[in-house]
Amino acid sequence: MIDVRESTDKLKILIVDDSELNRELLAGMLEDEYEIYQVENGKKAIDILEENREQRTV
């Protein structure tokens, strides 16, 4: 599971796509400006969002 508790000064983006290539391309374009998290399906994305609801940074 992704640990989003580690804090940086960057805003966080969660990329959700079943294609690893798509995730990597998008992450590569955004990684200089944002802290990137990637998952391959909506279920995992919802799990991450629910686990980190109190932070409201993902």
Short description:
Helices cover 36% and strands 21% of the residues. The chain has two helices and two strands.
What does this protein structure show overall?
The protein has 58 residues and is α+β, with helices and mostly antiparallel strands. It is 36% helix and 21% strand. The protein is built from two helices and two strands. It has helices at 20-30, 42-51, and strands at 11-16, 34-39. It has a two-stranded parallel sheet with strand order 1-2. The longest helix has 11 residues, at 20-30. The model has no long low-confidence stretch (mean pLDDT 87).
In what range is the share of β-strand residues?
15-25%
Spatial strand order of the main sheet: 1-2
What's the average pLDDT?
Answer: 87
Helix content: 25-40%
**How many beta strands in the DSSP annotation?**
2
Uncertain stretches of 5 or more adjacent residues: none
Multimeric organization? single chain
Integer-rounded radius of gyration:
11 Å
**Helical segment tally?**
2
Structural class: alpha+beta
* Spatial separation of the terminal alpha carbons: 14 Å
Task: Tell me the major beta sheet.
Answer: 2 strands, parallel
Shape: flat
Q: From N to C, what is the helix and strand string?
A: EHEH
